[in-house]
Design a protein that fits this description.
The structure holds 2 protein chains of 2 kinds. Chain A is mainly beta. Chain A has no helices and 11 strands. Chain A has strands spanning 4-7, 10-13, 19-25, 38-43, 50-54, 58-59, 67-72, 75-80, 89-95, 102-103, 107-111. In chain A, the strands form 2 sheets. In chain A, strands 2, 4, 5, 6, 9, 10 and 11 form a 7-stranded mixed β-sheet that branches. Helix content of chain B is 0%, strand content 49%. Chain B has strands at residues 3-7, 11-12, 18-25, 35-41, 48-53, 59-61, 69-74, 79-84, 93-100, 108-109, 113-117. By secondary structure, chain B is an all-beta fold. In chain B, the strands form 2 sheets. In chain B, strands 2, 4, 5, 6, 9, 10 and 11 form a 7-stranded mixed β-sheet that branches. Chain B has a 4-stranded antiparallel β-sheet with strand order 1-3-8-7, with no helix packed on it. The chains are: A mainly beta, B mainly beta. Chains A and B meet through strand 5 and strand 10 of A and loops of B.
């Protein structure tokens, strides 16, 4: 299985300041079809996960522009340009390039 | 708006079978663009993909659970179901149903249902 490792596991941030989460995969996530199936999910407290980013850098419908994704191969980053109070929660990276689909352990974003 | 709702027992005894159903509204399970999946989350822990099904009946299971899992679809009721047999305490989790395109993380999730395995 592909292991997804996120850093940091916890990220205290100041409102209005940027935040960044890294995700590293144990193997390249480039599929033979040329696509990289790396996504980012947000899980607010008590809520189901919500898709933010798919295929590394594409924002899902309704996701604010302050969320952006980047990376290639085995190293990926989720950035929040200016953190808002509603961004508090746990963020997961996930890969669907190779079965079984796997998730990172999660990064908790909280307000300082 | 696509909505998914899980239903089923909240308490299952060890060694028995966990059975959940996901009812879909706002979309047809026969929609050829999407798969219908199950993901679980033990209390306070991370996410684990269980498996997914296409409306035709084609299934993809996590190998770690494959020997115990069956996912099926009922197109006439616009539902799909999860059966997990021989459960143990480690199967206690919130179980989510979701809609996703192939090789894409789910864009639509149910609210989740907590299933506790205990005697």
């Amino acid at each position: 299985d592909i292991v997804m490792t996120q850093t940091p596991l916890s990220s205290p941030v100041t409102l209005g300041q940027p935040a960044s989460i890294s995700c590293r995969s144990s193997q390249s996530l480039v599929h033979s079809d040329g696509n990289t199936y790396l996504s980012w999910l947000q899980q607010r407290p008590g809520q189901p996960p919500r898709l933010l980013i798919y295929k590394v850098s594409n924002r899902f419908s309704g996701v604010p522009e302050r969320f952006s994704g980047s990376g290639a191969g085995t190293d990926f980053t989720l950035k929040i340009s200016r953190v808002e109070a509603e961004d508090v929660g746990v963020y997961y990276c996930t890969q669907a390039t190779q079965f079984p689909w796997t998730f990172g352990q999660g990064t908790k974003v909280e307000i300082k | 708006q696509v909505q998914l709702q899980e239903s089923g027992p909240g308490l299952v005894k060890p060694s028995e079978t966990l059975s959940l159903t996901c009812t879909v509204s706002g979309d047809s399970i026969n929609n050829s663009g999407y798969y219908w999946g199950w993901i679980r989350q033990p209390p306070g822990k991370g996410l684990e993909w269980i498996g997914s099904i296409y409306y035709s009946g084609s299934t993809y299971y996590n190998p770690s659970l494959k020997s115990r899992v069956t996912i099926s679809v009922n197109t006439s009721k616009n539902q799909f179901s999860l059966n997990l047999n021989s459960v143990a305490a480690a199967d206690t989790a919130v179980y989510y149903c979701a809609r996703h395109a192939f090789r894409f993380a789910p864009g639509y999730w149910g609210q989740g249902t907590l299933v506790t395995v205990s005697s």
